[in-house]
Known about the structure:
Layout: E1 2-6, E2 17-20, H1 21-29, H2 33-47, H3 51-58, E3 63-64, E4 68-69, E5 83-84, E6 87-92, H4 97-110, E7 114-119, E8 126-131, H5 138-152, E9 158-159, E10 169-170, E11 178-179, H6 196-199, H7 215-229, H8 236-253, H9 258-271, H10 279-294
Amino acid sequence: MKIPFYKNGIKNSFCDGYVSIDRFVEANRNPKPSIAKLLSDIKKASADNDKKLKTQLKEKLIFFTPSVIIPLEERRKYGNIESFTGMAQLDFDGLDVEKAIEFKEFLFENYKEFYCVYLSPSKKGVKGIMRIPICKEVKEYQDYYRAIEEEFETYDGFDPAPKNAVLPLYISHDVFIRYRENAKVWSIKKEVAQDLRELYPIPRKQYKPLKSNDKNKNRAINTVRKMINGIIDSPGHFQLRSACLIFGTRVGYGYVDYYEAKQELENLCRSNSYLSKGLEGYIITANWGLENGLKTPKPY
């Protein structure tokens, strides 16, 4: 088994090479000194609750796409998936350090499908790679992940975002990473009928015209429309996240109604020809950006 890796930070969306699952585990157990220093700085920023610095530092980290193979020097995007690896990543965030350590052991001991389980860079979360059947298409991968989500969503901090098969997984540093070579195969699927709107997406830019006389509301909506309509290629999640975080700060200040904002973002994702191809995952990213933007309201 091999896993694609990407050097030089999140803005580099081109595959730089591949590592085995064994090498992946060792890289997280004993990273290079420069990576270890960066991870230490991230941990400190997290402890200081400096979210801006933490985000800036994380964007410099090497990362992986453990669920899919992307051809060498090709972009990390759905259209470039060469094959699936038979692996799925899981992510649990927002735990305290002691709980994260305890939960890591719990997952590894109680779910034999995990190849590895380890602490996140901040030490306030747990990440893992689970063995699943080798899928033939994105929908099949998401069917398996839907069942995984149903199993794990009751645990604190579960993040469903890795249902997006090309979501980046940052390197971490956990000398006590748990690993087994012969993981069991997670075999449970949860299939759903495909949404007709995914088969027949709304033509681009077909969204509700603005009728409000509130210049700040119109400014906020026009800005996010321009940003999201401009997404035509990878890294889609990175661009969408930025747009929705900014929009969320305006919604948080009260310029746009929360529920109207959520509907606006979903419509923009559906009407974008690039984002509509991985609609479910992009809507999750859009909602994440909106919710996190709300936490830091900003006026014009």
